[in-house]
Amino acid sequence: MQKYVILKTRPILEEAVTKLCLESLPEDCLSMVDMGCSSGPNTLLPLWEIIETIDSTCSKLNQKAPAIQFFLNDLPGNDFDTVFRSLLPNFYDKLEKEKFDKLGPCYVAAMPGSFYGRLFPDNSLHFVHSSYGVHFLSQVPEGLVSEFGMPMNKGNICLAKNSPQSVHKAYRDQFEKDFTSFLSSRSSEVISGGRMVLTFAGSSNHNPACIYGTGVWIAICDCLKDMADEGKIEESMLDSFNLPVYHSSAPDVEQLIQREGSFDIARLEEIDINWDDNIEDGNQDLVFDKWARGKYVSNYLRAVAESVLASQFGSSIMDDLFNRLPLKCSNYLEEGMALCHTLIFSMIRK
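Request: output the structure for the sequence above.
Response:
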């Protein structure tokens, strides 16, 4: 699904990079970062799309392309070694074969740390990209426990229809604080005229499945509730657990960008993506039934969520949990409720 999202948003990424090349292309080195890059086969996909756009634009301008310095950013726990040991050699081989003598040198480096704070010197970045990163909060919001020690979001692991308004406010306040910090940090690091493209999961009132933008997490919560009913996990452990995830609406994000004041919005797109989109990637000859589609969704959710769930409930229940999840996911898919509302913001540093 992550690959599908990156490819789906490619026209917006191409447009931003093209305009950057036309308006603010440096002669020596173009410095960029992918924030929340994760570690896996999709890690270098945005970089390749950016390189192709730079190559095409510079060729049309009959201009030599500058060197590229590309930073991969994620939390220090990310396995950067895997990227540099297993993925980067093949990437450089492909770059040499397909772009030989067309581009300047390309340097890829790691920048571990939270993107909710400063990571780079002032005016050192020309372009910032992030795909499915900024809906993850810097921490679980405060205020989810009453003054008497009672969990306020009981029976949920994220925002849900029955979450109290105080829980909604706590999540919204944490997102506003984090996203404003993100913008403020980037405002110092990005040059005037620099570009930023952010893609993240959001919410929308136009579809019942996207009001809270948390359907995949609610499917996981349903499985945990079943396990609590069966005595396989403590109900108190479920009641006290909340994910650091918030899916904001496009108008609310626009308001935060305008309030922080460092960036102009060049383009905003909203798209709904089915949980099982791109299941046919590399398997076009296969037919996927309801169960197979549920299993596909469960597998990539496990890659995203297992570590944080295991920290609360223990590793021993993970196989049981994710063996239950395909059925929940397939039911959501069958009911047409398996949608991820996705926001794409393309911005210009003032």
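The chain is about 45% helix and 20% strand.
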